[in-house]
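Morning F.,

Quick status update on the modeling queue. The single chain you submitted on Monday has been processed. Sequence for confirmation:
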Amino acid sequence: MNRFKGKIIGSLFVNEKEFIKVIDEEEGNEYKLPKSQILFPVREGRKYDFFIKYNEKFQKEFISIMHPDFLVGDEADYEIEGISDDEFNRYFILKSDFKIPIKVPKLQHQNEKRRKVRCRILRYKMGEPILRNIDFQNDNFRINEKYKFNIFEFSHFFDRKGNKVDSLVINSELLNNSLSVRAYDWHKEGIWQFKDIECEVIGFDKNSDPKLKIIDSRHPYYSIGNKSKFKVEEIVKRTNFNTGRPYFVLAVCDEFDFRYEVSALPNQERRVQVGDEIECEVKGIDTKVRLGQVNIEDPFFYRFEEIVDDVNFKKNYFSRFFDDNHIQDEYIEQFKTQYKASQGFWVFTYCNHILPTDFRESISKKNYAKAHEINNLLILLALLHESRLIP
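Structure tokens below.
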């Protein structure tokens, strides 16, 4: 279908039949259109949209005019001014200045008291626009709103990849028929003990039935705020697509063999092992059980022997500071307190104050062998810091 913008430039009579004259301003072509085919008021001098069709029977082109508010391909909300029926369908009558009623089929879910309906203009037939009702918004539901549904049965379906997906078949007085919604691990028969489920409307399908996702905050074994032990099954590395930076999550399971994820703490991927237990608190329940770690140990804390595997170094430059007979000062006290409390910052105190003091004393006493060992220890700790193995 070829379209053009044309101007009505006058009218004429041919064999007592009135025509209007139209000029295609871009191409300069002139056309005649029977006035009887124009079903709405037009004015001379005004521009309108037209389309051209070639009629093989008459071997010539014919034009049709489009109403400015009903252009082919457009979508718009139209006011409803009435209802009509035929033997097959029920229709909304749309408000317009056409000489004939402009109708569109009413969809099953649509309330007859609604004031507007969204339509798409498909084509024209004998001057009349043919519309499709595309208002799939269900009058009983609103997108992003939450609703309770009764569980009819536990079932499953197959996704586009052929994978079996557990589901719940649900119904409600607001629905015309039962619907299936994707279930999660704890919504299975024999586990889920509730008779209903809360869902959020995320859209509508071609039949105007709501598309749903389960956001029920109930769980057969947990409530928000509960704390429990979870076993680490896998340490997963991922990439933040906004920053490009890597981060880690811990895949964990509980005593019921349900698998969840929790964010790893900084450096925790180097400390935790598969099979370790961590304590987590249930922060939220919706499409996931959302966990946060509690009773958190400093992920940057390492014992001295984990950093420096040398018995003599530990005896000469570390353990002696914990001897009650050793001369104490504020930095040594701070260092000891941090280490006993399993705080990773003991390394800062040790490297910035304890060892440099020992180094200077060794130099002043001309004990260069000891100073050399202390210097090597400082270099080792600095290298480990650069590699982010310690804070």
